[in-house]
Design brief:
The structure holds 2 protein chains of 2 kinds. Chain A is an all-alpha fold. Chain A has 2 domains: 144 residues, no CATH class; 68 residues, no CATH class. Chain A has 8 helices and no strands. Chain B is mainly α. Chain B is built from 8 helices and no strands. In chain B, helix 1 packs parallel to helix 5, helix 3 packs across helix 4 and helix 4 packs antiparallel against helix 5. The chains are: A mainly alpha, B mainly alpha. Chains A and B meet through helix 3, helix 4, helix 5, helix 6 and helix 7 of A and helix 1, helix 3, helix 4, helix 5 and helix 6 of B.
C-alpha cells in the first residue's frame, strides 16, 4: 500500500528545497525512531528536529515545521503523531505502525524497568538534583528548537515580519498571559490560517517571481 | 483506598479513550483530569504515585506519554497486590499498562493516521497549505513558550538562579552548535546530582 504521490529520489535531489534522503526499509524506519526516542530525556521534541532534519535529512526545515504543526494540533502526543505521519508517508500503514512501535516499544520497556529497579531513587536528594538539572537542560533544548525553526518562516506566505509577529503574539499569550492552549489555537490559529489562505490565493492568482505550479481549480477535492 | 476490582478495568479504559481525544497539545494537558479521576475520584492511585509516575517518565528516555503507562502500572500494582505477590502481581501491573496505553493512544493515533493521510494526498489544496503555513509561526511561538513555562514552573518550585543559568546556557548551545544532546542532559543530571545547581 505505498503512496503513489511520493516524490521519486531523483525528483527529491533535483529540487534544492526538498529533502534528499528517506528511509530505505521499514526496519530502518523502526530503528531510526527507536534511536531517536531513546535520546529524548525530558521529552523527545528537541531530538526529533535534530535527527530528522539535521542528521538524517529526511525533512527540510520547512517540511518539518509544517508536519510538526499538524502533529501538534491533532490530539495525542505530538512525537507519536509525527512518527505515524512520516511512517505512513514512506511505507503506508505498515510504516505508520513501524514508526509508532519504534517511538514506543523499547522506551516502554526501559521506563518499566526503571520503575521496578529505581523505585526509591527519585526520592533521594541526588536523584531529585539530577531530575532538576535535566529538567533545566530540557527546557533550554525546547526553546532552542523553536529558535532553530524560526528561519523557516522566511518563506511564509504571510510575509517574514508578519510571521514573526504571530510568533511573538503566541509566545506572549501562552508563556506570559498563560491562556489555555485551546483558546490560543482556536483564536490565533484560526486567524493565521484564514490570513494564510488569502495570502496564498493572492500568490496563486498574481504570482511573483517563479510561480508555484497552479493547483488547478481551488477547493476541488482530488480523486 | 477503594479496592480495584475486575469490573473496574472497563471504566479505566473508557476514561483513557476519552482523554485521548481531549489531549490536544500533549498528554500533559490532560493530567489535571487524570488526577481528578484516578486519585480524587476513585482512589486507584495515591497522590505520591501520581506525581512519581510523571517525574519518572520525564527522567526516562522516550516520549513523555509513557507517564500514562506508569500510571497504569501503578493502578495494576495496587490492584494485584504488588510484585511481591508473584506472577499475579506482575500480570495485573502489565494489564494496567496495556489498558491505559491502548486507551490513551488508540483514538488519537487512528485519527492522526487518517487525517494526515488525507492531508498529504491533498497537500496542493489551498486549504491544506493555508493550514500548515498559517500554523507554522504558532508552532515556533509555542515551542519557545513551552521552554519558558518549564523554567518558570521550575522557579516557582525548585529552580534557583544557577538552574535557570543552566537552562539558558543549554539553549544557546543547542541553538548555535551541533553538540550531541545527550552530553548536555548528562551534564545537567551530573551537576544536579552533585548539588551544584
Amino acid at each position: 500500500m505505498k503512496k503513489v504521490n511520493l516524490p521519486s529520489p531523483t525528483e527529491g535531489l533535483a529540487t534544492q528545497a526538498s529533502a534528499a534522503a528517506r528511509p530505505r526499509t521499514i526496519g530502518e524506519l523502526y530503528w531510526a525512531f527507536t534511536i531517536l526516542a531513546l535520546q529524548g530525556f525530558g521529552g523527545v521534541l528537541a531530538v526529533v528536529q535534530r535527527e530528522l532534519v539535521e542528521r538524517r535529512r529526511w525533512l527540510t526545515l520547512e517540511e518539518f515545521i509544517e508536519d510538526w504543526a499538524v502533529a501538534q494540533i491533532l490530539p495525542g502526543p505530538n512525537v507519536v503523531n509525527m512518527s505515524v505521519m512520516l511512517g505512513d508517508r514512506y511505507f503506508g500503514w505498515r510504516g505508520a505502525m513501524a514508526g509508532f512501535a519504534g517511538m514506543l516499544s523499547v522506551p516502554l520497556v526501559v521506563v518499566l524497568a526503571m520503575a521496578v529497579l529505581l523505585e526509591n531513587v527519585a526520592d533521594t536528594a541526588a536523584g531529585q538534583g539530577a531530575l532538576r538539572g535535566m529538567g533545566a537542560v530540557a527546557a533550554g533544548l525546547i526553546t532552542a528548537t523553536g529558535l532553530k525553526l524560526a528561519p523557516a518562516l522566511k518563506s511564509s506566505p504571510l510575509g517574514h515580519a508578519q510571521a514573526l509577529a504571530v510568533v511573538v503574539l503566541t509566545f506572549v499569550l501562552v508563556g506570559l498571559v498563560r491562556l489555555p492552549l485551546v483558546w490560543v489555537l482556536l483564536g490565533v490559529g484560526t486567524s493565521a490560517c484564514v490570513w494564510a489562505w488569502f495570502c496564498l490565493k493572492q500568490l496563486d492568482e498574481h504570482p511573483v517571481a517563479p510561480a508555484r505550479p497552479a493547483p488547478g481549480a481551488e477547493e476541488r477535492p482530488r480523486p | 483506598m477503594t479496592p480495584f476490582g475486575p469490573s473496574d478495568w472497563l471504566p479505566l479504559f473508557g476514561q483513557f479513550l476519552l482523554m485521548s481525544m481531549l489531549a490536544v497539545g500533549g498528554a500533559i494537558t490532560a493530567t489535571p483530569e487524570m488526577h481528578r479521576f484516578l486519585v480524587d475520584g476513585h482512589h486507584w492511585l495515591t497522590n505520591q504515585q501520581f506525581i512519581s509516575s510523571i517525574a519518572l517518565a520525564q527522567a526516562a528516555p522516550g516520549p513523555n506519554i509513557l507517564f500514562v503507562a506508569l500510571m497504569g502500572w501503578n493502578v495494576g500494582l495496587n490492584a494485584g497486590g504488588g510484585l511481591a505477590n508473584g506472577p499475579q502481581g506482575w500480570l495485573t501491573a502489565l494489564l494496567g499498562v496495556c489498558v491505559t496505553m491502548v486507551g490513551m493512544l488508540l483514538p488519537s493515533t487512528t485519527l492522526t493516521f487518517f487525517i494526515t493521510r488525507w492531508g498529504h494526498r491533498n497537500r496542493e489544496l489551498r486549504v491544506v497549505r493555508a493550514f500548515k503555513q498559517g500554523m507554522a509561526p504558532i508552532v515556533v511561538g509555542l515551542l519557545v513558550a513551552t521552554g519558558w513555562v518549564l523554567v518558570r514552573g521550575g522557579v516557582e518550585t525548585t529552580f534557583n538562579a544557577r538552574t535557570v543559568a543552566v537552562a539558558l546556557v543549554s539553549m544557546v548551545i543547542v541553538w548555535r552548535t551541533r553538540v550531541h544532546l545527550l552530553w548536555l542532559l548528562g551534564a545537567g543530571a551530573l551537576l544536579g546530582a552533585l548539588g551544584a545547581v
